[in-house]
What does this fold into?
Amino acid sequence: MLVSTAILIAFVIFLVALSFKNIREHFYSLLYIHNLPGPPANDILTGNLLYLYTTPDNVFKTLREWSKLYYPVYKTTCAHLGAANIVSPDDFETVLSTPIHMEKSFIYNMLHDWLGTGLLTSTGLKWQIRRKILTPAFHFSILQQFTAIFNEETEKLVKVFRQECDKPYINVTPHVTQFTLKTIAETAMGTKLQFTSHKEISYKKSIFEMGELLLYRLLRTWLIYKFLYLFTSRYYIERKVIKHLHSFTDSVIAEREKNFKEVVPPTENDDVYTGKKRLAMLDLLLTAKHKEGTIDDVGIREEVDTFMFEGHDTTSVALSFALMQIACHKDVQDRIVEEMGEVLGDLKKKPTCNDLQEMRYLERAIKEVLRMYPSVHFISRKLGEDMVTRCGHTISKGSMVNLHIYDLHHNPEIYPDPEKFDPDRFLPENSQTRHPFAYLPFSAGARNCIGKKFAMLELKTAICGILANFVLEPIDSASTIVLVADIVLRTKEGIKVRFVPRA
It folds into this structure.
């Protein structure tokens, strides 16, 4: 018994030694972070993060209180770990406007077993190469092709809502999530998902399970370190889930590669992409593999998995919140429908990419939804050099910095009456004097979201299709939903809306 215990202790010490450089760096940065204001530490081991070991809704509520109480920057600490939490637009600009602070913080390491080091988590030259490969996938002419996919899937979503519209309300969240999963699958992988086969159902279930596992680990700071996570049962559950996810992605990539023909990606000077076949992001990755050798099979899977994860979850929650706010504000809903009539002529006409770009009021309404409910409500970076905040605090090189986008968007000094839903905040005359880093639903700087135009077109298409067929009436509202801490911004119990067939 003593021998086995000694071996276990020696093994743990060895694993800790492997991470010593990181631990030493965290201790050094903690010396500076301790000088920041913030909630008092409970004790030296748990720091002030003990206050966050509660339910996800209380975690979200506590973070909002801290951001108001300790504005513009505050500390969170736990044992040797510490983070500076940034809330002001000036400090956002300092971090995001320079490539010096481009590296994601170590909490993103939790994603490596699943996503590897794809566009979300990579840095340096690898990130630059991947960004260059994928940028043409969001060329205007390719987005025109994607709009057709958005319309097809919106029509299917409308049919689902029509089958359930006789109910007092519909929880839109699961339906919208399946819609965005199907659209990203076809645009990223060139694969239509019906969610009728065991393989597809298992894939969808595995994505949801990964979200739950990641959240569990994120809220238990010590489990961010893999050498500690290895000793939990959830690690082995996660391995099985990841195996399912990778198996599905590998099979789709292999199938696409069988009939692969090299494509010539559009350039900035191309007005129209003339290819007859719909171009999926996967086609660009396969071209980069076969023609240039700048990516291998593992790299292709990294990017496809990354886009499947990021591309469906963020848009899903944005669309759910948008439907809620449109239902709650009849004047906004009426103006959107009026604009649709002016642009489309016939409400039932499927909008083109050009049609959607003309819908300026709808775009302002979506922007206001993303202000109030940013899908990615916080991001985290590792400082590439010492940073001095707007109020004079020094944060050392290597420190973890959390940027709370939700609190930035709810700052009453930037957005008067921030809980009021008002699309006209985004009229040119109302936003031209606003701080350039005061609105960041798609982040900013070199690492801004590559798919922001994609997301906006998908949201516009879905809303147009839904409002062409239904009048939305409120069930849930900003005052009834309970927001929870998660990888993306979510509500505790989905979002409920009443659907009334439009005459």
